[in-house]
Amino acid sequence: MLEVNHLQKVYGTGDTAFEALRDVDFSVAKGEFVCLVGPSGSGKTTLLKNMAGLMAPTTGSVVVDGRKVTGPPKGLALVFQEYGRSLFPWLRVDENVELPLKELRLSRTERRARVTEALEHVGLGANAHSYPWQMSGGMQQRAAIARAIAYRPKVLLMDEPFAAVDAQTRADLEDLVRRIWDELGITTLFVTHDIDEAVYLAERVVVLSSSPTFVQRELIVDLPRDRDQLTTRSDPRFAALRHDLYAEIQKAKVNTADARV
Ligand code: ADP
Ligand code: MG
Question: Which residues of 5-31 are buried (b: 16+ CB within 10 A; e: fewer)?
Fold first, then answer.
């Protein structure tokens, strides 16, 4: 469903050229849930921007559902880290969720039905007419997730979406994302720098090196599909995977080759 082929991204030119991504190569199968982890500054956001067609790679390519990405691909939705900036403050929650649907050729009735369904899905059924600034951070991020799923994407990309919410809200949002993935079968690529979060959420974790970045390792998360915050996190297998991933990230951090081109 998602292929990243030898992607390289160099920012700038001449003396100030900086090679953020050197050779990133991996793929995500239809219906899979993959977490992408890597040290801060390893180019995770850069990679997602290239995948979402918001930025062109220097070399290499991204293929979404069989089509090479040259601009924002149809069927792909992106949830950003800064929920505060991703919703329009002058639109109500239902209007925010409806906005991207206007480019799909749907009747108004069908659009409204999808908005209602998506808001119900994330537990915001009663908040349809609120403005984003009237809601907590966790609720705003749920609204951003509702907007993404109302679009019924084949691929969902999420860039550290829960980095700015408190621990309890974060746990709830993690379970929400797992549930949505399970129920809707959306191919999901979730970026996080949180090791526990990556193991809790993913079926597979892709570990990036520091810049200039390559895929350092892929780790299969062989935990049961049904997960919950208490049982899963106290599973000895969870601890072993967490340990393994932690060691891998430490390795990634010390590997700091000069990224200057
Ligand atoms: P991450 O999301 O993993 O923290 P980023 O993709 O944001 O990493 O950044 C990767 C590297 O590329 C960083 O060193 C960052 O400073 C650099 N970078 C990001 N955006 C730009 C830009 N527009 N111009 C130049 N360098 C950039
Ligand atoms: Mg980032």
Answer: bebbbbbeeeeeeebbbbbbebebeee
